[in-house]
Amino acid sequence: MKMVVGNSQYQKMANALLILQLLRKGPNTRASIARELGLQPSTITYNINRLMEADLVRQSADMDQTSSDESTPASLGRKAITMELNRDFGRVIGLELLADTGWASILDPAGSVLYSEQVEYPVRNGESAQVRFEELVTFVIDKMVARCGDIRVLGVGIALPGIVESNGQAIRDCWTHALQGTDLSKYLNDHFDFPVLLENDANCCVQRYLFEGAEERQDNFMYLLTRSYPKEHVPAGVSPFGIGLGLVFNGTLYRGSDSRAGEFMSALLPAKQKGTQLSVTINHETELVQSAEIRLAILTELVANIRSLASALDPDLIYLGGFISDYFDEVVTLLPDELTQKVVFTNAHNDASEGAAVHVLSLLYRIPQVGDSSSQCNLSSVLQEII
Predict the structure, then answer these.
(1) What is the DSSP letter of 279?
(2) In degrees rounded to 5, what are phi and psi of residue 346?
(3) What separation in angstroms does the CA of 368 have from each of 153, 223, 341, 371?
(4) Residues in the chain where the model's pLDDT stays below 50
(5) Structural domains in the chain plus CATH codes
(6) pTM for this one?
(7) pLDDT of amino acid 1
C-alpha cells in the first residue's frame, strides 16, 4: 500500500519535479501545466516561482503563440506566458567504455545532444584491473567536464558490457575491463562532486529510445546490441563478439530478478559450451568482414534467435544495433516476413553513450517513493537540493 503524503516538503518537491518532467517535453503555459498535472493554478504558480528563482525554469523567448486558454472574453486575444526548462542550468555526460575505445556524449537537461566524440584511451599504468579502469574513468570524465565549460555537471552515466549491479556503482562481471565483483562506490564518491552511475550497455541503448520525445518510442520493445572486438583485446578462450539485449515491458526497463536480464546466449549453443554466445566458431573479427560464409552463418544464427525472442515476447519494435546493422542488405533477406515491419536498424555508435546520459536524466527527474532506500534514488537529490 502506498503512503499518502499531505501538504509537506516532500509534496512540494514532488510537484516541482512533475513540472520539470513536463517541461522536459517542451515549453508550456501555467494554465496548461495545471490542467495536464491536475494541480491547482496557485500550486503551479508557487512552484514555477520557486523553479525560476533556482534558475531551473525561465520564460520562453518565443512569446508569439496565443494562449490556449482563450475560452472566456476576458482572456480573448491575450498572449500566453510560456515557461520552458532552462537548458543551461546543467549538463549530463554519457560514456560508453569498450575494450579498446570509447564514445562520449553531452546532453542538456531536456535531453538534447550537444556534443559527441570518440575517445581514445590513454596509456594506463595501474597495477590492477580496477586501478587501470579508475584511471580511464578519471581521464575521460575530466576531458568531458572540460567540454562543459562553466556549466555545472549534474551527473555522469557510464555504459559497460557485462553485468552491472542495480545500485549503479558495482560491476559483477565485465571481461572487456577484466573486472569481476568490483565495488567502485568509494572511488566514484570520493573523486567526483556529482553522481556517477554505471549501467549495462544494452540497457543504456534501450533507454535511449525510452526517452520521451523519441519518434519511434513504444511501450514494449527490445534492442539487440552486437559488438565485435580486436582479438588482442579479448581474453583467451573468449569470442571476439559481445551480444546483449535491452528489454522494455510496459514502458519500463526490465532488469530481471538478479540484474541479469538481457544476457544473450544462442539457443543453438551446446549446453555445456562456455566463453561464447554463438555456436558459430570465429577467432578474429576480420573473419566477419572477409568471409561471406562465416558472416552468413553468424547472421543466420542471430536472426533465428531474434525470431524466437520475438515469438516469445511479442514486442512492438526490435532495434538492431552494432555490426548486425552494418550488413543491412544481408539481414533483411534472412528476416521472416512477420518481423520485417518490426525491425529498426540503428547506428549504435552513440546509442549507448546517449542512453547512459538519458539514464542519469531519468533518475535526476525521478520522484523518490516514500521508503525507497535504493542508492540510485539519491541521484534525484541533485535537483532536490537546487529546488
Answers:
(1) S
(2) -135, 145
(3) 21, 27, 38, 8
(4) 1-5, 64-68, 70-75, 215, 373, 375, 377
(5) 9-85 (1.10.10.10), 91-204+352-375 (3.30.420.40), 216-347 (3.30.420.40)
(6) 0.88
(7) 31
